[in-house]
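Troubleshooting entry. The earlier prediction with nickel (II) ion gave an output that would not parse, so I re-checked the input for stray whitespace and re-submitted. Clean input:
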Amino acid sequence: MKITFYGHACFSIEINEINILIDPFISGNSLASAINLETIKADYILVTHAHQDHVLDVETIAKRTGATIVSNYEIILYYAAKELKGHPVNHGGTFKTADFSAKYVNAIHTSSFADGTYGGQPGGFVITANEKSLYVAGDTAVTMDMKLIPMTTKLTASIFPIGDNFTMGVEDAIIASDLVECNQVIGCHFNTFPPITIDTEEAKKSFSEAGKDLTILEIGESIEI
Ligand code: NI
Ligand code: MN
């Protein structure tokens, strides 16, 4: 699995030449101005919830690429009305293809579109392919539901929000990594806006003191897990 960070909570995951894009918010993110929206590949767009900082570029990218949007029922209905291709799931359900599976799991947050349309209940995804599993928590507080994930899945890495204010912050993300039994964490949802500005060096230090590894990717940077 090759993971590329496009800023805020947007990642691309490449599996067997299939490109999965998560929560595209690029055109509205001044920190991601070096990323060209026109060249981003997507076969699937996974959407954790309907907030603008997760869906802003869904329509543009889905129209250009013909990607299938995978999200909760309400979000898929919203895009179906715009004649975009989608596959609805709901919490506990798994979307399966020949190349990967993506289970929609609980998150504690809210979910509405910028125009006020109800965006269903928010979630995260556990993406599994080639004997690796990646937990994309989405916007969430730490929640005991996270303990359910390692009962079925040995995680390779987790993408956690660490910016606090709208989601869990560093201290709770460390607890979350205990709950999911995975010490490899990739941070997101920090520094995009003033209320979620954090000291990333301090954050890495806190993880390391807890015996865990926090990866902070530069926007545009990729890692292989
Ligand atoms: Ni949100
Ligand atoms: Mn958000």
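This one parsed fine. The chain has a mean pLDDT of 98.
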